[in-house]
């Protein structure tokens, strides 16, 4: 279950873990320290790194840095829209073996450009990017997991290869 630490009671992570629920941090405006506290209590996933949360700033490092330091799994939408390829590469370098590719896919995933219903909205897909109405807000993604893997393996988001020490 994804929660925003700044809106959760201090014991929310503990209660969920006691109920055998895996806890994620996401959809949050949490500070670095708020996110770090949730990870220290046992949250083990960062939902959709860089999306729906503050990015990395040198004076306010935010939830992504807290997750990288906490050695938890960091989910990333590697569609080149939600997160730039250079940032995806940085994430792989900062958290080797702990990055999980996710899609945030909507029903239009893999479909042609056009208009699609999503909840009470009409989503317009153009050039594979799903947006809601006049605001232009992203409406999930049309990414499929096989395409995410191909993008990462194809080099634009390639994780740095680890060199063996001799």
At a glance:
This protein is of the alpha/beta class and 166 residues long. Helix content is 27%, strand content 19%.
Could you characterize the architecture of this molecule?
With 166 residues, this protein is of the alpha/beta class. It has a domain at 1-102. Helix content is 27%, strand content 19%. It has 5 helices and 9 strands, in the order βαβαβαβαβββββα. It has helices spanning 12-18, 32-41, 62-70, 85-94, 145-153; strands at residues 2-3, 24-25, 45-46, 73-77, 99-102, 114-118, 121-126, 129-132, 137-138. The strands form 2 sheets. A 5-stranded parallel beta sheet has the order 1-2-3-4-5. A hairpin with a 2-residue loop joins strand 7 (121-126) and strand 8 (129-132). Helix 2 runs parallel beside helix 3 (62-70). The longest helix is centred in the first third of the chain and has 10 residues, at 32-41. The termini are far apart. The mean pLDDT is 93. It comes from uncultured Sanguibacter sp. Keywords: Hydrolase. GO terms for molecular function: N-acetylglucosamine-6-phosphate deacetylase activity.
């Amino acid at each position: 279950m994804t929660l925003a630490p700044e809106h959760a009671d201090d014991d929310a992570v503990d209660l969920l873990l006691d109920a055998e629920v895996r806890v994620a941090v996401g959809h949050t405006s949490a500070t670095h320290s708020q996110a770090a506290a949730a990870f220290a209590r046992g949250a083990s996933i960062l939902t959709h790194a860089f999306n729906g949360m503050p990015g990395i700033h040198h004076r306010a490092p935010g939830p992504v840095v807290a997750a990288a330091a906490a050695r938890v799994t960091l989910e990333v939408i590697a569609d080149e829209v939600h997160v730039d390829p250079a940032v995806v590469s940085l994430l792989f370098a900062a958290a080797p073996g702990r990055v999980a590719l996710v899609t945030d896919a909507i029903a239009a995933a893999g479909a042609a450009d056009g208009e699609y219903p999503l909840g009470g909205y009409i989503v317009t897909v153009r050039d594979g990017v799903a947006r809601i109405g006049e605001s232009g807000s992203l409406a999930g993604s049309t990414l499929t997991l096989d395409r995410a893997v191909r993008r990462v393996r194809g080099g634009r988001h390639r994780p740095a290869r680890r060199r063996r020490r001799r």
